[in-house]
Amino acid sequence: MKAAAGSGAGLTPGTRFSEVTLTDHAGNERLLSELVGGDPTVLHFYRGWWCPKEQAFFRRLLRLQDEAEVAYSRLLSVSVDPWRVSAAFRAGLGARWTFLSDEDRSVQRKLGLRETTDTVNNPYVPTVFTLDPELTIHACYDGYWFWGRPTEDELTRDLRAVSQDIRPDWEAPTP
Amino acid sequence: MTPVWLALTDERPAGVGAAALVEENGRPAGFLVAWDQRAKPRRGVLRVDPRLVDPDGEAAWVSLVLVPTEIRLPFDDLAVQEARRRVLAQPPLDGVSALMRDATHFEGSIAVERGERAEERLRDDPFGRILPPRLLRVGEGVLGATLPPVGPVMERYGSANPWPGDQFEEQGQ
Description:
Chain A is an alpha/beta fold. In chain A, 31% of the residues lie in helices and 19% in strands. Chain A has one domain: Glutaredoxin (3-Layer(aba) Sandwich), CATH 3.40.30.10. In chain A, strands 2-1-5-4-3-6-7 form a seven-stranded mixed beta sheet. The mean pLDDT of chain B is 95.
């Protein structure tokens, strides 16, 4: 996998993702490591509710949600939208995972993930990371062009690989 | 993590966290008691997500669902699954936990909320669609506020771990 576009902070597979604090869709300050907990996680940065490409990609994540809910795997979606906007978008989508707001773009600056071609919204460049519980990046996907985004199959493979690494009883105990 | 147990009692027991309960109509409804200990403290107690119990917690409204003893409702019952999904989808409350006696049955739930719209919000308690809930006012000193579950996981992290507890104590589902 290649590094995300604009990833000045060196967000490449095998490196550790920065610890960051963001506001969740209920207005609580949340630490990334606390949100990831002990599970494989899809960390998704998106432009905003208004982007048709994001709406299409969310439909993909919603399908994944129906499997992740029983697979001890987490999803996190981050944008620069205010948290109340994120809450409304989340509710409209029917998402059951945590949406995070970086309204002041401080985390965006830290990560070097501003989409420089959109000078109106200054959104995140669409990027998806899969992480292990130590926040180590397993894979990253540059979604500036839509086909750069991970398919459900790619995300499933990533989540399987991380699960295999972190679950000591991955091979089912048998008599 | 040390298990935490909840029970409703008629008398306030000494030496443990307890808070008075009051029905919506103002009638006293006994006490909500919490024990933080590995051994089961008495008959009839139910395990709760330990994060929900806080001796410094403020007074709150609760929606309490208790499954009658003559009903055995599997934790994996589709209605219980859907209630967990609805909890994750809705705007979060101050806290929620399934209540458990063993590793396989749903014995009830407790949802906690504070603020002006607490009663109104608790009327949408998804677990209240399984069995009629009691809406009660609970005094300070037992229930805290938790951060919302991360989602979308609606499984328990170990069958004896009350949902939405989100860490495996030991490996294995």
